[in-house]
Amino acid sequence: xxxxxxxxxxxxxxxxxxxxxxxxxxxxxxxxxxxxxxxxxxxxxxxxxxxxxxxxxxxxxxxxxxxxxxxxxxxxxxxxxxxxxxxxxxxxxxxxxxxxxxxxxxxxxxxxxxxxxxxxxxxxxxxxxxxxxxxxxxxxxxxxxxxxxxxxxxxxxxxxxxxxxxxxxxxxxxxxxxxxxxxxx
Length: 185
Hints:
With 185 residues, the chain is an alpha/beta fold. 38% of the residues lie in helices and 17% in strands.
């Protein structure tokens, strides 16, 4: 098989959900829904929203489903880096005790409309790390290494320093599964 480049699997940035960093949560959710409806290239729908600086047009972050859920309860930031809790082997009982002790998510859905109208995307988004950018000519093998080492769900594809697409883990996994099915055993 020929050496595959990430440009063969990426989703062009124009087909992705995008908002300004000054947008509110409701605008971001609506942008995600619209992008999911319009995306026909893959059975895998978008799970994140790209966040841009309105003045410069530069990508400044991503708003994932996880970040949205975490953003509904700002007290999570008072505890610890919640993304690492499960890696330490904490039991569900311990996690529940933290939730009760800090009074987390007491009634998040009761106030979801108010929060959606007031929470700014820039306060919830994850900044894109320099290790999440790959040049458009990067091989699929190199991209897989970046996914595994960085535990990323997506990587930003650049051409001459400008973001032109998104390489999603789901699309890479689909390609790997396709190749495995072609194997003669």
